[in-house]
């Protein structure tokens, strides 16, 4: 079933490619400016904080810029006992106060800006992701989506901070260079040369670092893969008592990891030392040049002090690379976030269902890789969908309950197009159970009932033959889903119970009993048949027994309905029988992705 | 092991490394000692005294000190790395051991042990390594700078130290006082961040199911709650971080104002103008950056380190002592054995009595969830009964030495490596024996597919049936006299399954098969039926007569394969 899903989404992308507007690649949004607009929106949504940050950062930078000048005058004032010396001392104290207050305000505002911005982005993302549902899964891999909503939202939230930082940096660097030029243009030349050297060193580091980092990550990856392999075979290992040997096997790439790690440290250390020595050396050079002019009587001690400080302030320009990098990261992150927001949400109508038996009708329905045409599934019947892997069974099931919308045509339930139903009405009417259900909700009870009454939850669990093992879980129904030791079959039965608790007209089982042994499956089928609500059941089946018990069978082949009839009628066709022989017996969920066995 | 103890061990394990760090640190902080003094001398004895040569000489000395310092700084980084890298290795080993131990302890590993959990653990290790290196670097840098600057100021003019050190100490004290609150906020922020990431991962992974259940609003409200919590934690952290600047103001900026204000006093005590500039250089060039680094490093990296180490160290349950009692034979006996997955859970195996003599061939059947795998895990010694006893040759199963029995579960374990190594995992078997086993089990096509015995096996690329075949050959080669196949042949076709089971029956010793198909039960000498807490034991014919659920089972069992 997993394999089918993959095929479907691939087919979707391929089908869209030739004529439709290009599907955005995983790295960018439809519109390259969408990211920038998002950054702008983020700044606007930050409330007063971005403004506070800008004012504090710039004011602080100005204070810091004026300080060396005032300090120089203070020193000269005291040395020569000039009249204004106490006033300048006062100015210095005021400037230091200003620097400190602005710094505190900026730190606070920086944190608050980022927090507000990323929270707003994440809330928007959560709604957008949930609203688009399956379409989102077709476009982005799960891990990619998590990165975009997590890390990328955070990076985008830092855009205002980087912008303001770059802006505020202009004050000391431009000011420092101007002041230095006023004192002596030669000093400025020495300074600019120093800055250029720092930037060159940092660039060289980034290049060398990237190559070594790749080797490091490769060794890390090998360890992680070996660990996952070992975890998937943990019962064998535990039974054989070979944990220590496995630990050694998993950790075999450690020496390679350490070698790369030390290389990385070496590169970092060299770059750090080179960049670190440049700043003081440039300052010493400025002091020397200034000192010579002082000896010539053209510079006072205070001015010499100021010149040295301005050199340091001007050298702050070497941090511009950091801000530029931050801004570039924020912009590309914003592009990735915007790509998620660009996926349109699923629209729901506001109609409700009239009373009816749960008849499903397909009218001229096509979907990528599947052409159903017209098809009626009688209300109250049990219909099995069979076909080889990749025939489109899961897609048909998804269309019947509007997990996916068709490209063309409509699907109706008791005469009402599914797209016209309100979301609540639709989900109340249709329940899905899957081969590998993902259990949402904190506890097992919540995962089944999603807030329904306890009695209803338990009744559904009993119908799915799940009540017995749930009561054996560490905390029974209150066991957190993440801590419940569940086998594949048990997980499936909780997923079945969830569908039972929900659906009152149509129940779609997409290979949802594949991990159950035949006896349990039989019991579940009996519960299905004798269920209280008159439900229509659509069952994607791999076993002939399941198809045999159905009222009707839809046989899919290569995305089309090859035949329809009862299992008994179809069984006469050798091609039909071959469909079942190709399938492997039920599998407990392996933890690593394994292609379906063909034995 | 506590984080504190681990760090102490790591630091003190190799005193030479510490001496190395200290030595290079002295070089690295040479300018911190020299900067003010050299600037003062350059001005007062050189440029201001009309001797520019002397001034330039002092500045050249200072420049040379900076170059030496850069060499020192480089060596310090490498020396710290030589402590940090082994720490990383140790933490990774901890993560791997912990994951394996936890998973084997849980027997049916909770879904949480997946690739995401492994990635998170890896990230924690990297964060811990970087944070450790950062903390060691800044704390050491601070200490050496403080000593160097103090010595420098005393050399320059002791009165300077009087103006600078008291406010500096006050700033440091302020920081230390605010540290616990700061650490709390930082920790709260990191934890909220992790919770948000987990929430988002759950949301992304469950999209299909959330849509199918119409649970969007419910999930959105929950996720937004997490996002809001994290945002609140970030804002709270920003507030205390802003308050932290007070420490920098007092420790880094107040000395500047005091030196300027104290200039007349310093001049009266014999200082010239250069001494004032030198004193300011000490503060702005060395002391303030060192304090800044300390505040930043300890408050952020220190907390990060504590949180990560706590996570990593807590992830590994204590080691279980190795089972090593030599059993007397391999008869299996259960005496009123009871097992439940939790104190409030209903028992899966309830006061079960069972005797499997040596050489028996037993099939275990029953609906899924009846406790068949739990029973095999008890016999294999992976689980311990809550009450009663499970004995192998008279020894408690979890204490009995492992090589005497082998359990092959449904999910076959195949690791990346040569095929031969995979076969010989449990035995020291020569090539000839391996070839015989491969022939017995009909695994020749598998060997060909893998490119011979030396071929590298990629577990992800092998179909489940082929993986099971590898596990079966491995079990066949093992010296074990008790073989437990827990649906170990479910991915094989019926003919291959029969061949494998017959090979194991002919191999000798005790064989327990958790049956996936009726045919497995028919081949066994005896059948154990488990159903809803009740058990029946007997031959196939006996059970058909005496156990109604068995007759029902046989009637319905796999019509498609019959």
Automatic annotation (TrEMBL), chain B:
Species classification: Bacteria, Bacillati, Actinomycetota, Actinomycetes, Streptosporangiales
All copies of domain ABC transmembrane type-1, residue ranges: 25-289
Protein name per the record: ABC transporter ATP-binding protein
Keyword Methyltransferase: no
A Pfam family reported for this protein in Swiss-Prot or TrEMBL: ABC_tran
Record membrane topology: Multi-pass membrane protein
TM spans (from-to): 21-43, 55-73, 131-154, 160-182, 245-267
Keyword line: ATP-binding, Membrane, Nucleotide-binding, Transmembrane, Transmembrane helix
Superkingdom in the source lineage: Bacteria
């Amino acid at each position: 079933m997993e394999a089918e899903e993959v095929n479907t989404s691939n087919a979707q992308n391929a089908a869209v490619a030739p004529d439709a507007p290009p599907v955005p690649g995983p790295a960018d949004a439809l519109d390259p400016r969408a990211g920038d607009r998002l950054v702008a929106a983020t700044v606007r949504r930050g409330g007063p904080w971005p403004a506070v940050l800008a004012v504090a950062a710039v004011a602080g930078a100005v204070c810091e810029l004026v300080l060396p000048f005032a300090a120089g005058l203070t020193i000269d004032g005291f040395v020569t006992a000039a009249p204004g010396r106490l006033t300048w001392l006062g100015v210095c104290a005021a400037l230091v106060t200003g620097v400190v207050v602005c710094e505190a305000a900026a730190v606070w505002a920086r944190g608050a800006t980022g927090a507000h911005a990323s929270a707003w982005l994440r809330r928007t993302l959560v709604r957008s992701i949930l609203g688009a549902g399956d379409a989102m899964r077709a476009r982005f891999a799960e891990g990619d989506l998590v990165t975009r909503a997590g890390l990328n939202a955070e990076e985008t939230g830092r855009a205002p901070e980087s912008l303001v930082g770059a802006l505020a940096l202009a004050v000391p660097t431009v000011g420092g260079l101007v002041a230095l030029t006023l004192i002596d243009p030669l000093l400025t030349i020495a300074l600019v040369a120093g800055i250029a050297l720092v930037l060159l060193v940092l660039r060289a580091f980034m290049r060398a670092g990237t190559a070594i980092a790749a080797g490091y990550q490769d060794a890390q990856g090998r360890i992680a893969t070996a660990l996952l392999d070992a975890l998937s075979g943990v019962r064998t290992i535990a039974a054989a008592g070979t944990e220590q040997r496995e630990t050694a096997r998993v950790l075999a790439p450690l020496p390679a990891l350490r070698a790369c790690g030390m290389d990385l440290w070496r590169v970092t250390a060299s770059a750090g030392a080179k960049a670190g020595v440049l700043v003081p050396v440039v300052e010493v050079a400025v002091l020397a040049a200034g000192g010579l002019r002082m000896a010539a009587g053209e510079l006072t001690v205070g001015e010499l002090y100021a010149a040295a400080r301005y050199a340091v302030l001007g050298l702050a320009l070497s941090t511009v690379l950091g801000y530029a990098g931050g801004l570039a990261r924020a912009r590309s992150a914003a592009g990735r976030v915007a790509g998620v927001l660009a996926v349109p949400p699923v629209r729901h109508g506001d109609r409700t269902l009239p009373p009816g038996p749960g008849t499903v009708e397909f009218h001229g329905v096509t979907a990528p890789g599947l052409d159903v045409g017209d098809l009626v599934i009688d209300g109250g019947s049990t219909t099995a969908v069979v076909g080889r892997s990749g025939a489109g069974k899961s897609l048909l099931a998804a269309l019947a309950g509007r997990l996916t919308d068709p490209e063309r045509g409509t699907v109706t339930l008791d005469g009402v197009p599914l797209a016209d139903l309100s979301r609540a009405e639709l989900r109340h009417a249709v329940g899905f159970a899957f081969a590998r259900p993902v259990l949402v909700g904190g506890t097992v009870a919540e995962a089944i009932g999603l807030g329904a009454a306890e009695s209803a939850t338990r009744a559904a669990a009993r119908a799915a033959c799940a009540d017995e093992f749930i009561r054996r879980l560490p905390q029974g129904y209150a066991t957190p889903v993440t801590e419940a030791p569940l086998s594949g079959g048990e997980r499936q039965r909780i997923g079945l119970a969830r569908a039972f608790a929900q659906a009152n007209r149509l129940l779609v089982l997409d290979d949802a009993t594949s991990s159950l042994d035949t006896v349990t499956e039989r019991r579940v089928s009996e519960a299905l048949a004798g269920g209280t609500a008159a439900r229509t059941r659509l069952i994607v089946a791999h076993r002939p027994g399941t198809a045999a018990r159905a009222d009707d069978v839809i046989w899919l082949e290569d995305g089309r309905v090859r035949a329809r009839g009862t299992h008994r009628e179809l069984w006469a066709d050798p091609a039909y029988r071959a469909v079942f022989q190709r399938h492997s017996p039920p599998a407990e969920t392996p933890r690593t992705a394994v292609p379906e066995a063909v034995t | 092991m506590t984080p504190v103890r681990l760090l102490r061990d790591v630091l003190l394990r190799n005193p030479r490394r510490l001496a190395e760090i200290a030595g290079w640190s002295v070089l690295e902080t040479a300018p911190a000692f020299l900067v003010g003094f050299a600037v003062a001398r350059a001005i007062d004895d050189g440029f201001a005294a009309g001797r520019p040569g002397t001034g330039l000489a002092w500045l050249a000395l200072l420049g040379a000190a900076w170059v030496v310092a850069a060499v020192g700084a480089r060596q310090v980084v490498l020396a710290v790395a030589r402590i940090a890298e082994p720490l990383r290795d140790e933490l990774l080993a901890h993560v791997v051991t912990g994951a394996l131990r936890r998973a084997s302890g849980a027997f049916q590993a909770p879904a949480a042990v997946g690739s995401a959990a492994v990635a998170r653990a890896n990230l924690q290790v990297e964060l811990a390594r970087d944070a450790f290196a950062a903390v060691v670097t800044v704390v050491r840098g601070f200490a050496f700078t403080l000593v160097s600057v103090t010595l420098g100021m005393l050399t320059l003019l002791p009165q300077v130290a009087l103006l600078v050190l008291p406010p500096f100490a006050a700033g440091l004290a302020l920081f230390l006082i605010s540290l616990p609150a700061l650490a709390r906020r930082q920790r709260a922020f990191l934890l909220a961040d992790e919770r948000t990431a987990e929430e988002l991962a759950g949301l992304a992974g469950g999209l299909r199911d959330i849509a199918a259940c119409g649970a969007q609003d419910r999930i959105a409200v929950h996720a937004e709650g997490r996002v809001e919590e994290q945002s609140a934690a970030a804002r709270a952290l920003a507030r205390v971080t802003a308050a932290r600047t007070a420490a920098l103001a007092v420790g880094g900026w107040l000395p500047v104002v005091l030196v300027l204000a104290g200039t007349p006093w310093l001049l009266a005590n014999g200082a010239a103008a250069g001494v004032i500039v030198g004193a300011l250089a000490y503060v702005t060039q060395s002391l303030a950056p060192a304090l800044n680094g300390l505040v930043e490093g300890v408050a952020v990296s220190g907390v990060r380190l504590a949180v990560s180490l706590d996570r990593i160290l807590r992830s590994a349950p204590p080691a279980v002592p190795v089972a090593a009692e030599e059993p007397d034979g391999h008869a299996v006996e259960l005496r009123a054995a009871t097992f439940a997955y939790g104190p409030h859970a209903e028992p899966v195996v309830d006061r079960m009595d069972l005797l499997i003599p040596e050489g028996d061939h037993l099939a275990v059947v029953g609906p899924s969830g009846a406790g068949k795998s739990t029973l095999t895990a008890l016999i294999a010694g992976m689980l311990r009964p809550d009450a009663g006893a499970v004995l192998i040759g008279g020894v408690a199963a979890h204490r009995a030495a492992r090589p005497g029995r082998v359990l092959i579960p449904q999910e076959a374990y195949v690791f990346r490596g040569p095929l031969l190594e995979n076969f010989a995992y449990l035995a020291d078997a020569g090539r000839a024996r391996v070839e015989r086993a491969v022939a017995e089990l009909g695994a020749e096509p598998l060997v060909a597919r893998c490119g011979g015995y030396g071929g590298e096996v990629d577990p992800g690329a092998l179909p489940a049936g082929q993986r099971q075949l590898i596990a079966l050959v491995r079990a066949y080669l093992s010296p074990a006299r008790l073989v437990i196949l827990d649906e170990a042949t479910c991915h094989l076709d019926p003919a291959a399954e029969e061949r494998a089971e017959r090979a194991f029956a002919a191999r000798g010793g005790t064989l327990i098969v958790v049956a996936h198909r009726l045919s497995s039960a028919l081949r066994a000498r005896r059948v154990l039926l488990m159903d809803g807490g009740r058990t029946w034991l007997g031959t196939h014919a006996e059970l058909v007569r005496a156990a109604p659920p068995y007759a029902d089972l046989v009637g319905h069992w796999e019509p498609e394969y019959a």
